[in-house]
Amino acid sequence: ETGVTQSPTHLIKTRGQQVTLRCSSQSGHNTVSWYQQALGQGPQFIFQYYREEENGRGNFPPRFSGLQFPNYSSELNVNALELDDSALYLCASSFQGPANTEAFFGQGTRLTVV
Amino acid sequence: AQTVTQSQPEMSVQEAETVTLSCTYDTSESDYYLFWYKQPPSRQMILVIRQEAYKQQNATENRFSVNFQKAAKSFSLKISDSQLGDAAMYFCAYRSLNRDDKIIFGKGTRLHILP
């Protein structure tokens, strides 16, 4: 176990709805990254939060947004859900500083859009 | 932009045998990290091994070792004495040294272990 926890583990939503996924980072980590993993594919970088600010973004539309809180936990919000948003969403936490640590991944949230 | 390519969607190996998973990547950077991650059915991405590009020596972690060829941009994973618990998806991944430190993954290789 890595100490990175995600909730919920599974979720079913209807097209057009909004969803919020949550991630608790490992103790001592200050950075959270979110990835989308479609079935049969490798994870794709969505964005990263460092000290509560977005610190890099992949090729995802603005309806994918996020937050990082003072305790370094994070949320991923997706508005106007589309069928193609069905995927495993992975959160990874790490420490950025004079000596960066490895990224540790949570077990993911499986989102199904119907 | 950096890319990571895994050309073997699936592989099988007999228990106790050795298997090598292939990976190539493309980058214009000179310093970076390369990783192999394992993703079992539990879905959690587990770091298997890491290689710093500035190190010529190939990384080794117990039964897992890599063959890092920087000029050829090749990064293969060798699993010795394969065990049933090694069955999983394996992802080759790249990370640059810049601040946003996103990880770029290949599409993965599904490894089957035959008893």
| Number of strand elements of chain B | 12
Whole-number radius of gyration of chain B?
Answer: 14 Å
Number of H/I helices of chain B = 0
Q: Which percent range describes the beta-strand content of chain A?
A: over 45%
Instruction: Tell me, rounded to a whole number, the average pLDDT of chain A.
Output: 92
The main sheet of chain B comes to:
6 strands, mixed
Question: How much helix, percentage-wise, in residues of chain B?
Answer: under 10%
Kindly name the structural category of chain A: mainly beta
Q: Termini of chain A, distance in Å?
A: 31 Å
Reported for the largest beta sheet of chain A, the result is:
7 strands, mixed
> Mind telling me the C-alpha Rg of chain A?
13 Å
Per DSSP E runs of 2 or more residues, the count of β-strands of chain A stands at: 11
Approximate shape of chain A: globular
pLDDT averaged over residues of chain B: 94
Q: Roughly how many Å apart are the termini of chain B?
A: 41 Å
Q: Given the C-alpha coordinates, what overall shape of chain B results? A: globular
Poorly predicted regions of chain B are: none
